[in-house]
Write a structure and sequence with these properties.
One of its GO terms (molecular function) is translation elongation factor activity. This is Elongation factor G-binding protein. It holds the Pfam family FBP_C. Keywords: Elongation factor, Protein biosynthesis. With 210 residues, the protein is an alpha+beta fold. It has two domains: 73 residues, Monooxygenase (Up-down Bundle); 121 residues, no CATH class. Helix content is 39%, strand content 24%. A five-stranded antiparallel sheet has the order 1-2-3-4-5. A hairpin with a 6-residue loop joins strand 4 and strand 5. Helix 1 runs antiparallel to helix 2 and helix 1 packs antiparallel against helix 4. It is elongated. The mean pLDDT is 92.
């Protein structure tokens, strides 16, 4: 009975940490209850529940008092997450037809319930690949990735982290000319996925580079 996608799961985890933080940092019950009410409202706005049973599965979030309880809660709700559907080898080839020697990561090591998009860097070419789904359709983007060794705001997850410049280029209106576009994105795509709670940010990022 999966009723959350990955971004919603990451969102609920974020809300759970907010509940725990409120309890550990404040003794004022009014403050704690206000944050609990806000979390309830935000969850109701973010998730769609088909029945009351699904809502009840998330109720333990409001009783979180310790880090151990938080970890147990996160493990418990993960079973209700719809994983990112693993692409086939043919699908990868169709996404990037120009790459005759496409190197993909070890798919067996990926936790598909933790990623909204799949990304990796080919160290031989410095190309960064992003594979994602939009309206159920598998899509891909690739560009040259430059490690900047600087901390900035990731365009995708909107967190402050070590970022690099992802630059794409496509043929311009005149023969022999190219249009280049780029933006900053997390170096660590795993951490980026953990922070990504709004897939529209990813879609907007991709649109700016296409």
């Amino acid at each position: 009975m999966n009723f959350m996608n990955v971004e919603q799961y990451q969102f609920v985890k974020k809300q759970a940490k907010k509940i725990l933080s409120a309890y550990t940092s404040s003794k004022d019950q009014n403050v704690i209850q206000a944050i609990q009410a806000l979390v309830q409202e935000e969850i109701n706005n973010k998730l769609y529940f088909s029945d009351v049973e699904q809502q009840l599965l998330l109720q333990p979030i409001f009783g979180l008092r310790t880090k151990e309880q938080l970890e147990i809660f996160i493990v418990d709700i993960k079973q209700y997450v719809e994983p990112f559907k693993r692409p086939t080898e043919n699908e990868f080839k169709k996404l990037f037809p120009k790459d005759k020697k496409l190197r993909i990561p070890n798919l067996e090591q990926i936790d598909w319930k933790e990623i909204t998009y799949l990304s990796w860097v080919d160290s031989g070419t410095n190309r960064k690949y992003i594979v994602y789904r939009e309206d159920g359709k598998l899509k891909g983007l690739r560009g040259v990735f430059s490690n900047t060794e600087k901390v900035g705001i990731c365009t995708v997850c909107n967190r402050q982290a070590k970022v690099g410049m992802l630059m794409t280029s496509k043929s311009g209106p005149t023969l022999g000319t190219y249009t280049k576009r780029g933006n900053y994105i997390c170096e660590d795509s795993v951490a980026c996925n953990e922070t990504l709670t709004d897939i529209s940010k990813l879609n907007d990022f991709v649109e700016t580079l296409l």
